[in-house]
Amino acid sequence: MTKLILLIGLPGSGKSTLAQQLITETPHSLLISTDNIRGQLFGDEAIQGPWLLVWRELRRQLEQAVLAINQGQATLAFYDATNAARRQRKDAIALCRDTGFTHITGLWFDTPIWLCLSRNRRRQRQVPEDVIFRMYRQLRDAPPSLVDGFNELIRYHRGEFIIVE
């Protein structure tokens, strides 16, 4: 079984911090990040650049992760991106399945917006607040659910992991 954990949450929600911790604590796990991809392609994670280029590199890295898992070199992969809009989640899940992932868990960081904004203000690379508010509305209006195509969905809220039925 090829497993992927797809992270969901606002900028400043704690996704990347927890992903780094999980990568450290989970032997033979892989991290695929759209921020890292932008850094590789454009020399700076803050440069959005053409999404098609990011998407192609994302596909390539997902394919490499599936290959590594199938060859026993890795056990699972994490996909770190905001995935705030339902359409983004569905497209990402479809891409992950198309590249060979058979079990996809959504990990939704349901962090209060005030905390995300506070963390964002302390970052070196800040996301514009209007972008965070737009993503907040996307998550509020169409929160992650199993209907998105996940095998399972876990909500991280106030320090607790909750399985979404």
UniProtKB/TrEMBL annotation:
Annotated GO MF terms: kinase activity; tRNA binding
Q: What is the lineage of its organism?
A: Bacteria, Bacillati, Cyanobacteriota, Cyanophyceae, Oscillatoriophycideae
Q: Which InterPro entries match?
A: P-loop_ATP/GTP-bd_All4644_prd (IPR017101), P-loop_NTPase (IPR027417), Ser-tRNA(Sec)_kinase (IPR052648)
Q: Pfam families per the record?
A: AAA_33 (PF13671)
Protein name per UniProt: AAA family ATPase
Gene3D superfamilies registered for this protein in UniProt? P-loop containing nucleotide triphosphate hydrolases
